[in-house]
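#structure-requests
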Amino acid sequence: MMASGVPLAAGTDATRVSSYNPWLAIHWAVSGKGRGGDVIWQAANRLSREEALRHWTSAGAWFSREQGKKGQIKAGQFADLAVLDRDYFAVPEDEIINLEADLTFTGGKVVHAKGPFASHAPADLPGLPDWSPVPMFGAPGAPKPSLVS
């Protein structure tokens, strides 16, 4: 698909068949390994770290007709930003799956903060919709909440 020039952006199948954690899918695209550790993509079919990151960031702007407005850290573009707990380009390939954001801005506002930025964390949002099982059982890939009050 990439060689044909067809616009391509990446994402997750969440919440249908997988976690909405993008690092799981990015790890798969870079390493070619499934969740069980088996190599299912040969090296020629994998993405470099740079390509994978581009497909999960700036490439999506084409689909929303926002090229030049989002997806890059550049003057004049929307400023959504995540500060990761480790360097994506330096961690061993199999650790990509464990990356987490310590700080996330959306629309110029802090929407998530932990670790060294915890004092900037916004109040938790309520689980929606009301009937969602997430408050009781946790989100896919996230630690399970305590059921003891």
